[in-house]
Amino acid sequence: MSHHHHGPGCSHEAHDHDHDHGHDGHDHDGPDRGTEYSLWRYINIDQIRCLNEQVEGSAKKVFRPWEERLDEDKYVESDADEQLLIHIPFTGQVKLKAIALRCRPDETAPSELKVFINNDQLDFDSAESTEPTQSWELVSPDDVVRAMDAQGGVVEYPTRVAKFGAVRSLTMFIPANFGADTSIVNYIGLRGDFTPLNKDPIITMYEAAANPADHAPIVGTDPLSAQKPGL
To answer: C-alpha dihedral over 208, 206, 214, 219, to 10 degrees?
Structure first.
């Protein structure tokens, strides 16, 4: 497993535009942030799958309300090596605008993130060989505290929104960290817009409207006189 994905410039791309006003609570820690990071409500939590998590079910706990992002007791840690693969299905369709991460300021912090949309079949081998929808080099432990201070306790990585306009599921692949045997992530926030899927009601209404045509009266009979209650 490689540990060389921590180029000197990766921290600046993520937060330079924020650092001048990083302690402005209105921008980074106000009520709007909780609204922006509300996509956790639309994750099918029970169906989250994580490969190589040390404690089964722990990945489900890192997707939680913005107000709980600083909870250090909930985290996912990798098991056999530093890699994690988390599959996140939504209950509708999402336009994903940004991913926010809260990690520890040490070598357990992931150094790289690759994400794939609408691909339910990925494992570690296919995630390594498949072109991701987008990838990021993540902020190094030396810079992560400053970056999190500037952004309300997380580091935000914007997406190329044009590629994330119709997301039914998201798979997050962490291939490497900054040198530790295992990787740890404390919080994952997803910012964007949610659209419910209306397929079932539309189908039901269509079938209801079609039923009378399916049962047209036989030619030459009067549908009213053909019904003779009591006889």
So the answer is: 100
Write down how long the chain is. Answer: 231
Find, among 14, 66, 4, 77, the residue nearest to 37 by Cα: 66
Whole-prediction pTM:
0.74
Across the range 207-225, mean pLDDT stands at 53
CATH of 31-194, one of 2.130.10.10, 2.60.120.470, 3.10.129.10, 2.40.40.10: 2.60.120.470
Of 91, 98, 101, the residue nearest 169 (C-alpha): 91
C-alpha distances in angstroms, 65 versus 36, 70, 164, 179, 215?
11, 10, 22, 30, 51
Rounded-to-integer distance, Cα 180 and Cα 8, Å: 19
What is the DSSP pairing of strand 167-174 with strand 112-117? antiparallel
Residue pLDDT, tens place only, 121-131: 999 999 999 99
CB 168 within 8 A of CB 90: yes
Q: pLDDT tens, 52-97?
A: 999 999 999 999 999 999 999 999 999 999 999 999 999 999 999 9
